[in-house]
Write the structure tokens for this entry.
Amino acid sequence: MAVKSELEVFVRFDFRGKSLSPQVTVDLDLQMEQQGHLSDFKLMLARENGIDLYSYEFEVMESLPIVVRRATGLAEQFSLQGVFDAEGFEARWRVLKEQQQIEAVALEYLDRETLEQNPQWQAALLAVYQLGKRGL
């Protein structure tokens, strides 16, 4: 996950005769690292754009789909025609994070060349890691 995973999202709606388009840029990697999951984008949009969570304005905004304006890093793979697959992103992010951690441990004992030439080592380490997660 070398390139930072970010999303720029917005919602466009009319409220009290005004056209509004609140937007926010979300650092997905940071959220996953800190929380283990992604936050509700609509709540983030409201907070970052001064929209009261108990207002009619928020209710209108909440009823509409969020649109992805820009995606970077891993997020690009899960953004299609302005729609973001958050569940798919979270699952893939976790798998890649596990692989990074396993590789870091492997490199303490093997050099990179040996690891690259023997992908079965990485597969074996991943299998042992999975067993450990299940408590075996």
